[in-house]
């Protein structure tokens, strides 16, 4: 399917402020497709202890949390693919297990709320 393969290197999160630049693109950890950054969800690792056994990964829809970020389509399909390949931990340079509960919650809520006008999925509690 894909003809030209360009070697994509993971860059540190520095972007030159370009005015009138094309839409910034990012690669989804799940399906490995490049897409506009605005249609991807940023993930960041929250390291709270020096050597945790598991690092909680959080969704960062506002793209303002500090630290290394990873990008994924906000769909459970892409999340599952990323989990299977352990792409999240690798993208975030984590050597321990990752806890994606918050990310999954966020995505599932978005998927439940998108498309239908029903409001039967109110968060309880
Ligand atoms: Zn994807």
Task: Tell me briefly what this model is.
It is built from three helices and six strands; from the N terminus they run E-E-E-E-E-H-H-E-H. The chain is α+β, with helices and mostly antiparallel strands and 125 residues long. The chain has a single domain, classed as YlxR-like (Hypothetical Cytosolic Protein, Chain: A).
User: Biggest sheet, open or closed, and with what strands and sense?
Assistant: 4 strands, mixed
**What is the radius of gyration computed over CA atoms, rounded to a whole number of angstroms?**
16 Å
Task: Flag low-confidence runs.
Answer: none
Q: Figure out the total of helices.
A: 3
Count of extended strands = 6
What top-tier CATH class fits best? Alpha Beta
Q: What is the mean predicted local confidence, pLDDT?
A: 83
* Inertia-based shape: globular
Structural class: alpha+beta
Q: Helical residue percent? A: 10-25%
* Count of discrete structural domains: 1
- The CATH architecture designation is 2-Layer Sandwich
Q: Cα distance, first to last residue?
A: 47 Å
Ligands, ions, cofactors: zinc ion
The CATH topology name reads Hypothetical Cytosolic Protein, Chain: A
Q: Biggest sheet, strands in spatial order?
A: 5-3-4-6
| H and E order | EEEEEHHEH
Strand percent estimate: 15-25%
